[in-house]
Amino acid sequence: MEKFLRADNVLALVGRTNVGKSTLFNALVKKRRKVLVAPVEGVTRDVLRDKMPDLLGWEVLDTPGWNKKEHFFEIMRKRYLEILQQSSQIAMVLDSQMPLSENDEELIQWMREANLPFVCLVNKVDAPTTALHPSVEKFISKNHYFCISALHKTGLQAFYDHLQSLLPMPKVEDQCIKVNACHIVLVGRPNAGKSTLFNALVGENMALVSDIPGTTRDTVWKLYEDKAGKKICLFDTAGIRRRTRVNEDLEKMSVSAARDALRFAHIACLLVDATMPLERQDLRIMSDLCKNGRCVILIVNKIDLVRDPKLLMKQINNFFLRHFTDLLKPIVLPVSAKKSLGVRKILPAIHYAYKAWDKRVGTSLLNNKLADWLSELAPPRVGGRTVKVRFITQVNKRPPTFLLSVSNTKGMTDAYLRYLRNKIQKEFGFEEVPVRMMVRSSKRERS
Q1: According to DSSP H, which parts of 127-234 are helical?
Q2: How many CB atoms are located within 10 Å of the residue 76 CB?
Q3: Do the beta carbons of residue 350 and residue 235 sit within 8 Å?
């Protein structure tokens, strides 16, 4: 099987057969040697990859059509999950003149179950007045879509603009990737001490510091080596308030820039002010980071201003253990960025968490443990039958992502998936990092 390296600018074209994916691929890559195109089903059977000259840095994948009746479909299906997990953007190509088929609906449902975000490209819209099939029009009204004509190469500019918007900081990203740096983003509410900590970590006063909330507006970053010789790309961001409190246009732009920086993060350091009570916003930021697969370290700043630091740390740990289920053991560090207390413990903790975030577990070892976990707590029953969990495998890392093959996906409740996730975290050293669980139907159920 061909291996694709994960990148932040790889576009995968997916869809059922004969909707124009290969024609679109040809239009995007602009090569003399073009992909074979014919008005019959099943022409494309391989995954093809090439660069997009109109969008520097982006590459596009042309995938086989999703067709359950195709002879090679079961073989090709196995490649889809790996390919789409390694793509930064997925484009579901639809035929504007044809109703949504069973293959379309199955592919859409499959991507949704796998939590894969996608946009719709409605192909064969040769003119602005082209009428869409009612089922297509109804579907795209609830999704992000672009109307295009791959044959006539029209409507592509709006889609290019969308792809370009996904890379708001290409210069920073390129420099950090070239040296294989660890991306660390400081995030939190306004006036938590992010800029002071940024200056303490890089060893110079790069970020403006004041007691006025909202001082930091632009995202400041620095690429440097720590004392162990490891490359660090550190970002200081604007404070993130609740959306209802973000009023001024300039502050909205600052918060948007902070969220953009988090898209490139490997490790997010969430700063909280030790002198202020924890708010739901702190929990919300941490939850969003974990759901997006980012490794999170909680830093309690200004600890020198607290009368009883040990009591405060105990209360914070209890708060997150009680209200936060994504991490079994959140890493919580007390520091004083202003006085450089505890700051030197941050980078070792980051490297420790990153190592776990980047870990891969063998399939045989996973399945040996899975048998014990199933015996300890049987899966739920659906329609009088116990759901059979056939096997488990790790399909990705950064974050660690595990795929379960089961007899009935409806029986995999959130509670049971959480039970298995907790077992994985405890057994294989993922307690401090987020773990994703995915479910798919086994071959027996589909047949």
Answers
A1: 134-140, 156-165, 170-178, 194-202
A2: 21
A3: no
Q: Concatenated DSSP letters for 318-367?
A: HHHHHH--S-SS-EEEE-BTTTTBSGGGHHHHHHHHHHHHT----HHHHH
pLDDT of residue 174: 54
CA distances to 100, 120, 130, 283 from 136, rounded to whole Å, are 6, 10, 13, 39
pLDDT digits (tens, 9 = 90+) for 252-279: 433 444 455 576 688 999 999 999 878 7
Q: At residue 199, does pLDDT exceed 70?
A: yes
The β-bridge relationship of strands 119-123 and 89-95 is parallel
Across the chain, which distance is largest between two alpha carbons, in Å?
75
Q: Quick check: 125 pLDDT over 60?
A: yes
DSSP-derived letter for residue 154 is B
pLDDT for res 278: 81
Contact 232, 224 (CB under 8 A): yes
User: What per-residue confidence (pLDDT) applies to 65?
Assistant: 79
- E strands, 20-115, in order: 48-51, 59-62, 89-95
CB distance 121 to 148 below 8 Å: yes
- Record the pTM: 0.58
Side-chain-facing half-sphere of 409: CA atoms under 13 Å: 17
Under 8 Å CB-to-CB from 442, ≥6 apart: which residues?
388, 390, 405, 406, 407
The larger pLDDT score, comparing residue 143 to residue 446, is at 143
